[in-house]
Structures are given as structure tokens and as C-alpha cells.
UniProtKB/TrEMBL annotation:
This is Calx-beta domain-containing protein. GO terms for biological process: cell communication; metal ion transport. InterPro entries: CaCA, CalX-like_sf, Calx_beta. Residues 272-377, 390-493 form the Calx-beta domain. Keywords: Calcium, Ion transport, Repeat, Signal, Transport. One of its GO terms (cellular component) is membrane. Residues 756-793 are annotated as: Disordered. Residues 765-779 have a biased composition (Acidic residues). Pfam families: Calx-beta (PF03160). SUPFAM superfamilies: CalX-like. It comes from the Bacteria.
Length: 958
């Protein structure tokens, strides 16, 4: 849009104030300015004189409020332009309200030459319904001599408001000058004026002149209308009510006021209702009658009006609650008197009264006199007066009898565990009109209180008309097979002085607790693995039933030797003795015990087994109270814990030219024969000279059979070795006798055969200095040796020793396995024999070496076996809380839980230890069950730690 120069240069003002919403004020300001011939002043730079052809700005697309309007400006030359906005004359959009003002004042856009730039205006999303609004964005050059502008259009996105009509007051009492004010209210302010035409429609009230009419009709626009100015929410219009001075057929009459919008601004019509209350007196109704009526007779009540009516008067009646007189009860509608579905009576036009007839009913109940009351309600063409309620009494017939009481059910199911409620119903044989009180109590039978059920007692109160009451008894569940079940009784007794004398209980009610447990079977007779030991001891094997019985269960035991034997007279053959031939599992228990005497010994033998069979006795001692299978077997394995025999070769010395007899001593004993091989080779011992093949005749490998049962300490001949005679002077020479067990069974402890020195001083070869050892350079020190245990369990203090030159200084070096180069630990001094030792605390696998006189020993490694712990607790029924921690401990270690099942270890849980070094888990088991568990923690061989198990634990689950 472009403004003419005269318009741009003019100025003026509107000399009055406008009020209302912003958009409305803006619109009105422009409208008024147009009427008086004055321009509207806005905050903007002075208008330039002529449009500038060097800057073009096309009209941007219209946007819906809340969106952005982008003005594109294309300049052919360089320069700076000042940007301003102004509202349009009609429906003008206002900066700061309909759109966001420019960020600065002045706001400029600079062009470096021919280029295009944009100005983005953000519009405001308001909630006001209004027409499309426009504003002008103008760009003025730096000298304010030229300008270019474009118009931005903001489309409304708000729904047209609806409106409602209301009347105040809603109900108008007939009188001179009475009226109701009709208000039209918009759901939201509108930016445009709204006109609602009003018309009326007769209901029970009619329009017209009194006395025929009740109100003055409205005929619609333009005579009868409501105008809601732009920016306002509501407008009003009165409708007049007339006084007709007559008693109307209805106490309150009504008519409807309808609204119709003029034009299409609003989308809906609306209506409201005006009620007119009759000014004339309304007839008042009262109730009388009642009194005493013999059971089976009719009671009569009278309804009276204080004013006659031109129309029929109807009224409803109903039975209502009442407080009986002392000693009386309450009559029940439908039981003690007829209570029809239609309880309405009518007073005819011009009449003054009518009657209500209430027939009473006969019954055979022993009951007190009963009171009841009826009350008027819901009158038509009348109102209720002060007395609308009357009381009657039904006199009971002579000779009615009281009821009897019974208890049900007669049986309940036991359950497996804990207590559960059994609900019993006490029933009267018939209703009573009096309150019936009955005491009840449980009495032991074959079922015992505290074991099978929880003793109980109480009082039941049957209010008049009530025939049933309930009470509960706790039944104690178990898993014990109890055959046909157990029973207790419930006694019922009338409460003296409280219950009708004619009430008689039906005697004690027998309640059977039905057993839901199967007869037991042998659930488990598990295999067992034990170390035999060296001395006699007793191994106890559990045998378990699937569930208890209320009878003792006896089982006969037989054993069938496998590799284990119970025979006497042969070494290692008397392995065990079955101590009991019968197991009795007491009533209500599930576990019996088999005792086996394990005859521990020191004899090496393989793992040995025997099979033990448990068989339920026939008849009432067992099988009559069980289900098949009646037998089960368990294998008892006696694990050998003795070493195989060792042949310790006896050291011997002989002179050259002699033949020495080589003997050995047997250590340990075996049930079977053991074969070891003994070999002979020259070797240095503690610095001695090793004999060579020229010094003795080597007999080669000498096999030796250690017969089964050979007693420890037995001396055996191995072989004879000829020693070679020569004329060379030489020191003592040594031969090492060593060997091994065939098939890795049995061992040989080395022995030394020494060839005595021969000739002159040993080691004095030509050119040698006296006192020097053969083969050593003068002053040469021996290489350090080092020795340490190969393995320890858990963090430990290890002892390391070795040999060096006498009194030599020894540097000790060490470091964790896998940690890289060793580091110096300490310096110690060997004793006069060259022996040294030290202790070192380690928490993982560790390596050691020593350095002495510039010579380094070999490196030894000590591996550490895990020494884990398993902590077990049971605080929640049916669940164990388990914690596994390694030793050495650490986060992220792999841990596992194993359970002994069916003769084998089964992993049931596994995971990683947490930041505190503990792996926690909570497996679920059957409540009351006994489980055997152990834990395992992995090692880290790369760091010198090895995996290991904890000891097994047996725990009973809560």
C-alpha cells in the first residue's frame, strides 16, 4: 500500500478517549479519525516524500495469527533503510498486541549493493474472534526522502463464540410490575457487534392481557433484541409478567424465550425458560387416622384439604421409618401389611377429603405388636400441610411359634498351610418378629483345637425378619495325610432372657474337616558322597516322604555291597556296617534317618560304593498309609582319602670295587598291588660330584611290585649296584635313585648312593690351589637358589627360602603375577651355611626372585586359590537370601550358586560381584524344604588366582 504525499505530510489528533480491548480501540480510533477527517498519529518516522524505485517490496502472503510474515526487500543500490510499521485504517493490526514490535527503534536494514534482505514479523496468537487485520511495513531511506511499503495481513484462527440465554429471576411471582431480565452472554469476547433477536413461546403460561394472559410476548428484532457491543460479553432485555388474580391449574407455569442471531456472526440459537409462580393460595393437605388394628384387619387413614380446588387433587403415600413404642417391633411393608405398587389417592374437584385403606396381613410368627407409619408426598394441585404422617399398630395374633436354628456347611476343606477362614451360616427355620440371639461354640471331636482348627465362640443376633447370620472358624492347614478327615462340632444355645422361649436349637452340628492331602510316597532317598576318614564314624542318610502321615511309617533297610565291602579279614575290605535295619518315621514327620558306620582306614583304595534300599513294611505299619512307590534306593560312596604307597629308597655308601645292595622302605598301604619303577643316574647332591657311567654299572629300570596289604615300614630289596674300581684320586661321587608309580599310582622318594672318595685330597689337580672345589674358578660364588610353595589358599603369608654363598647379602625381588617387571622388596643376609629365608604377605598370585653377588636366582610363582564364603539367611517365607564373596575379593568377579539335586551339583544362580565385592541373590524354594548349597568364585589365572568352591551348607527354608 502507498500513501499520497498530502496524507504523509499531514498531522492531527482525535480529541477524545476510547476504551475497550486493544483491537477494538484501534479499530474505533481509525473509524472516528475517518469521520472527523483527521489522520491517526502513530509512533513512526516522518513519512518520506516519494516512493523510491531503487527498493522493491512485494506484498507478502497472509498468515494465520501466531505465524511469521516475511517481507522481502530487493535493493538495486547500497544504502540504509529505516523500517517502521503502522496499522491499517480499517481492522488495523497493532504492534505489540497483534504482532511483535520491531526489536529496536529505529530499526534499520543496510544493503551493500544490489541484494535482497528480509524482515520477519512474528504475529500474536490471541483468543479473540475478529476479522482479518492488516498493517503496513514501510522502509524509508536514510535522508527520509524516499520510501517503499507493503501490507501484511493476519488472518484470525479463533472460532466464532457461542452464546447462552439466562433469565433472572428464573421464577417470578405474579405481582404488579413483575418482570424477568433476559441476558445473552457470549462464550468469549468478539471483535464485532452481536445482535440477538428475542421471541417468546407459550408453555403452561400463555401470553396476552390479564386475566387471560400471564406475560407480555416478545416479537423479535428490531423491536425486541439484545445488542452486545464489540469487545463486550453480554446484554439484557426485560420481559414483563402479569398478575391474573385467579388460582391457576398449576402453582407454577412457564414459557420459553428464544434467541435468534441477526446476521451470520454467531453459529447458534439459544433459549431459556421463565417460570411464573401463582400468587393465589395453594390447598394444604393433612393426614389423620391409624391407631391399633388386629392382625388381618384393615386400617383406615383420612386425607383432608383446607381449600377446595377447581382441579382434582392427587397425593401419594408411602411407609416411612418410625420409632416403635416400648416393647413393640417394626412392621415391614409387604410382610406385615399390604403395600401396593400404586399408592395414590384423589380428592375430586370441589371435594374436601378422601381415605387410605391399609390391609394388615396374618402370619405364624411369634412377634410383638408392630408399629408402622405412613406419610403423604408428591401432591398434585395442592401442597402438603403441617400433619402429613400418621402411625398405626398391628396387634399380633395369639399362639404364634418361634423358629429353630441350623448350621451349614457340614464340611470344609483343610488346605496345605497356614490358617484360612471357613464361613458358616446359621439359619432360622422361619422369620421371627422378635430379636433372636443365639450363642455358638466349637467343641473338639477327632479334630483338635489348636492343631486342626482354632477354637471359637460368639453370639449371633437375628434382627426381626432376618433368617441368616454368618460366623467364621479358622481351619489350620497342613500337608499331613489324615485319611477320611477329622471332625468337630458347633453347639448353638438360645440366650436366656433374650430369645423367644419357643426357639429350640437343632442340636450340635458336626463339621468334618475334609483332608486334601495324598497318602505319602517316598519322595527322596538321595545318594551320598563322603570321605572315608581314618577312624570309624557314623554317616547319617536322610530318607524323606513326600508329605507327612498321621500314622507312623516303618521302612525296612537292606544293603547290597558294590565295590565297598563289609567283610572282615582282608586289608581294606571292612568298609562299612549298616547300623539299623528299620527306619520309623513318626506321625506328622517326613524324615527318617539311616545310620551307616563308616570304618575309616589308612589304606589306599578306589572310591567304593554300597546300595541301601528302603522298603515300606506291608500293612498298617507302612503301605496301608502310603501310595506307590513303596521303595527307593540310595548309593553311599566312600571317597578314598589315603595316599598310594610310597617307596622311600634308603641312601647307602660303598667303596669302589664293592657291590652295594639298594633297599627301600614302604610308606602307606594299598588294598591292591602297586607297581613302581626305580631308575639310577649320576647326579650332584649338595655340591657333590655326580658319578658317571664309568663309575658304576647301571642296572636300568627296576620294576618293583608292592603287594596288596603290604604293611607300612616293610623293607624291600630293590637291586644291587656294582661300583667300578679305578686308580684315579677323586672325591666322593653320588648316584640318585628315583622313580615313579606306574599308572600314576604310587610314588618313589629319592635315595642317594654315595661312592666313597678315593686317593689324595679331592680336587687337587695340577695347577689348582688347595681348598678350591673341583670345577670352580677361584672365588666363584654359587648361583642363588630360591624355593616357595606353589599354591596357597586365600590371602596368606608365604615363606620363601633358598641358598647362596655363606653370609652373602641377598636382594629380594617380587611382584604380582601379570604385573610386569619385579621390584626390589628388601635386602637380607644369609647365614654361615648360605641359607636364607623371608616371609611375604600376598593377596593375589605373586612372583619372587633373589639377587646375590651379581647372580640372579630363577623366578618362582605362588598361585593363590580362592577361599570364598557363602552367607545364607532366610527371613521371607519360601525364599533364601544368599551372599557370595571371594577371598581375595573384588568387584566384577564371576560367582555361582549350586544346589545338590538328584546326586549331582546343579548351578541355580550366577552373576557378578558388586562394588562391595559381594554377589547377592534370592532364589525361591518350597517353604519348609531343606536344601544343600555351595558357592563358587572364579579366579584370574592371568593374575595368579584360581577358582574354588565354598564348603556345602544345609539350610531349612522358612
Amino acid at each position: 500500500m502507498r500513501y499520497p504525499k498530502a496524507h504523509a505530510d499531514s498531522s492531527g489528533w482525535v480529541p477524545f478517549a476510547l476504551r475497550g480491548r486493544k483491537s477494538v480501540r484501534t479499530a474505533l480510533a481509525f473509524a472516528v479519525a475517518g469521520i472527523v477527517g483527521l489522520p491517526v498519529m502513530v509512533s513512526s518516522p516522518a513519512f518520506a516524500t516519494t516512493p523510491d524505485p531503487t527498493l522493491s517490496m512485494p506484498t507478502p502472503s497472509a498468515v494465520t495469527e501466531g505465524g511469521n510474515i516475511t517481507f522481502s526487500m530487493t535493493s538495486t543500490t547500497s544504502g540504509t533503510w529505516t523500517i517502521t510499521t503502522t496499522p491499517a485504517v480499517s481492522n488495523g493490526a497493532v504492534s505489540g498486541t497483534d504482532y511483535t514490535a520491531l526489536p529496536t527503534t529505529p530499526y534499520t536494514v543496510t544493503f551493500a549493493g544490489a541484494e535482497t534482505k528480509t524482515v520477519v514479523i512474528t504475529t500474536t496468537d490471541d483468543a479473540l474472534y475478529e476479522n482479518a487485520e492488516t498493517f503496513t511495513l514501510r522502509a524509508t531511506n536514510a535522508n527520509a526522502t524516499d520510501w517503499t511499503e507493503a501490507v501484511g495481513t493476519i488472518n484470525d484462527n479463533d472460532s466464532k463464540p457461542s452464546y447462552t440465554l439466562t433469565a433472572s429471576p428464573t421464577t417470578v411471582t405474579e405481582s404488579a410490575g413483575a418482570k424477568s431480565t433476559i441476558t445473552a452472554t457470549l462464550s468469549a469476547p468478539s471483535g464485532v457487534e452481536t445482535t440477538v433477536g428475542l421471541t417468546t413461546a407459550d408453555g403452561t403460561a400463555t401470553s396476552g392481557v390479564a386475566p387471560a394472559g400471564d406475560y407480555t410476548a416478545l416479537v423479535g428484532a428490531p423491536t425486541d433484541q439484545i445488542v452486545i457491543a464489540a469487545g463486550q460479553l453480554s446484554g439484557t432485555k426485560d420481559v414483563s409478567v402479569t398478575n391474573d388474580t385467579v388460582k391457576d391449574a398449576q402453582d407454577t407455569e412457564s414459557f420459553t424465550v428464544n434467541g435468534l442471531v441477526v446476521g451470520t456472526t454467531l453459529p447458534t440459537t439459544a433459549s431459556t425458560t421463565v417460570s411464573i409462580k401463582d400468587a393465589q393460595a395453594t390447598p394444604k393437605l393433612t393426614l389423620s387416622g391409624g391407631g391399633q388394628t388386629n392382625e388381618g384387619s384393615n386400617a383406615t387413614y383420612t386425607v383432608t384439604t383446607d381449600t377446595k380446588s377447581e382441579v382434582p387433587i392427587t397425593v401419594q403415600w408411602e411407609a416411612v421409618d418410625t420409632t416403635p413404642a416400648t416393647g413393640n417391633g417394626k412392621a415391614t411393608p409387604g410382610y406385615d401389611f399390604t403395600y401396593p405398587a400404586n399408592r395414590s389417592v384423589t380428592i375430586a374437584p370441589g371435594g374436601t377429603s378422601t381415605t387410605i385403606t391399609v390391609p394388615t396381613l396374618t402370619d405364624s410368627l411369634d412377634e410383638p405388636n408392630e408399629d408402622y407409619a405412613i406419610q403423604l408426598l408428591s401432591p398434585t394441585n395442592a401442597a402438603l400441610g403441617a400433619t402429613i404422617k400418621a402411625t398405626g399398630t398391628i396387634v399380633d395374633a395369639v399362639g404364634d411359634l418361634g423358629p429353630t436354628v441350623t448350621i451349614s456347611p457340614s464340611s470344609v476343606t483343610e488346605g496345605d498351610a497356614d490358617k484360612k477362614w471357613a464361613t458358616f451360616t446359621a439359619s432360622l427355620s422361619s422369620q421371627s418378629g422378635k430379636t433372636v440371639k443365639v450363642d455358638w461354640a466349637t467343641v473338639d471331636g477327632t479334630a483338635l483345637a489348636g492343631k486342626d482348627y482354632v477354637a471359637g465362640s460368639g453370639q449371633l443376633v437375628f434382627e426381626p425378619g432376618t433368617t441368616t447370620q454368618t460366623f467364621t472358624v479358622d481351619i489350620i492347614g497342613d500337608r499331613i495325610d489324615e485319611g477320611s478327615g477329622e471332625a468337630f462340632t458347633v453347639t448353638t444355645t438360645a440366650v436366656p432372657g433374650e430369645t423367644p422361649a419357643s426357639l429350640s436349637a437343632s442340636g450340635p452340628a458336626t463339621v468334618t474337616i475334609t483332608d486334601d492331602d495324598s497318602a505319602p510316597t517316598i519322595a527322596s532317598f538321595d545318594d551320598s558322597l563322603v570321605k572315608e576318614g581314618n577312624d570309624p564314624w557314623v554317616s547319617v542318610l536322610p530318607i524323606k516322604l513326600s508329605n507327612p502321615s498321621d500314622h507312623a511309617i516303618k521302612l525296612d533297610l537292606t544293603d547290597t555291597p558294590g565295590t565297598a565291602s563289609n567283610a572282615l579279614g582282608v586289608v581294606g575290605s571292612y568298609d562299612y556296617t549298616l547300623l539299623n535295619t528299620t527306619v520309623t518315621i513318626p506321625p506328622e514327620m517326613t524324615t527318617g534317618w539311616v545310620a551307616v558306620l563308616v570304618n575309616g582306614d589308612a589304606v589306599f583304595e578306589g572310591d567304593e560304593t554300597t546300595s541301601i534300599t528302603a522298603t515300606a513294611q506291608a500293612g498298617v505299619n507302612g503301605q496301608n498309609y502310603m501310595t506307590s512307590p513303596f521303595a527307593d534306593s540310595a548309593t553311599l560312596t566312600l571317597q578314598n582319602d589315603d595316599d598310594a604307597p610310597d617307596l622311600e629308597v634308603t641312601s647307602v655308601t660303598g667303596a669302589e670295587g664293592e657291590s652295594v645292595a639298594v633297599k627301600g622302605v614302604i610308606t602307606g598301604q594299598s588294598q591292591s598291588s602297586t607297581v613302581v619303577n626305580v631308575t639310577f643316574t649320576g647326579g650332584s647332591v649338595s655340591g657333590s660330584k655326580a658319578a658317571d657311567n664309568n663309575d658304576f654299572s647301571n642296572p636300568g629300570v627296576q620294576p618293583l611290585t608292592i603287594a596288596a596289604g603290604t604293611a607300612p615300614g616293610t623293607i624291600v630289596n630293590i637291586t644291587s649296584i656294582p661300583l667300578t674300581q679305578d686308580n684315579v684320586a677323586e672325591p666322593a661321587e653320588t648316584i640318585i635313585a628315583s622313580g615313579f608309580g606306574v599308572g600314576n599310582v604310587g610314588t618313589v622318594t629319592d635315595g642317594i648312593i654315595t661312592i666313597a672318595a678315593n686317593g689324595g685330597t679331592p680336587g687337587e689337580e695340577p695347577g689348582e690351589e688347595p681348598g678350591e672345589e673341583p670345577g670352580e674358578e677361584p672365588g666363584e660364588a654359587p648361583k642363588p637358589t630360591i624355593k616357595a610353595p606353589a599354591r596357597v589358599t586365600g590371602p596368606s603369608t608365604v615363606e620363601v627360602d633358598g641358598t647362596v654363598a655363606p653370609n652373602a647379602e641377598v636382594q629380594v625381588w617380587g611382584g604380582a603375577v601379570g604385573s610386569g617387571a619385579l621390584k626390589p622388596l628388601r635386602t637380607i643376609t644369609a647365614d654361615e651355611d648360605g641359607y636364607y629365608w623371608f616371609e611375604q604377605r600376598i593377596t593375589s598370585g605373586y612372583r619372587f626372585a633373589t639377587l646375590s653377588q651379581n647372580m640372579r636366582s630363577n623366578e618362582v610363582a605362588v598361585f593363590m586359590t580362592q577361599n570364598p564364603t557363602l552367607v545364607v539367611s532366610t527371613t521371607t517365607r519360601g525364599q533364601l537370601n544368599l551372599g557370595v564373596k571371594g577371598n581375595p575379593a573384588g568387584a566384577g568377579q564371576t560367582a555361582a550358586i549350586q544346589q545338590w539335586r538328584n546326586g549331582a551339583w546343579v548351578t541355580i544362580r550366577s552373576g557378578k560381584t558388586g562394588a562391595d565385592g559381594v554377589y547377592r541373590t534370592g532364589p525361591k524354594f518350597a517353604s519348609g524344604s531343606s536344601v544343600v548349597l555351595r558357592a563358587w568364585v572364579a579366579g584370574e589365572p592371568g593374575r595368579g588366582t584360581l577358582p574354588n568352591f565354598t564348603a556345602q551348607q544345609r539350610v531349612t527354608v522358612r
